[in-house]
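User: I'm writing a tutorial on reading structure tokens. Could you give me a worked example: one chain, its sequence, then its tokens, then a sentence or two explaining what the tokens reveal?
Assistant: Sure. Here is the example chain.
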Amino acid sequence: MNRIVKSYFYWTYPRGNFHYDVMVSLILAFIFITPHLWNYGDKPAVLTGPMQPILVTGDGSHGLIITVQASDVNVGAAAPDSEVKRALRLAIEPVAGDAVFIERWELTRDRNGSPASWKIWAHK
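And here are its predicted structure tokens:
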């Protein structure tokens, strides 16, 4: 029994052998069955509603500058910082993921003074 376990561990059986086929079958079963049993967190984000393009650029170091249209963020300019940060995080989540840290943000306005876009400085 000890010898069989050792030979499975070190993969010593030749191709076409019964034990080789058992090992390959176990590996294939692991590959195809485990995604249904465990959540690996690799499913794509589900986008709801029409969204304008989100522009993502580097900030010169290890951070990101993310530009989101003001119409895609469901918060007013006069809202408290915690509420603005939460709304911005929801707006950039499809692009940046949920493990992003927002450092600061800035609301840009058009010529009429209406909100145009949010510029967000963030890093992972």
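What the tokens reveal: The helical segments are 2-10, 18-37, 81-96. The radius of gyration is 25 Å.
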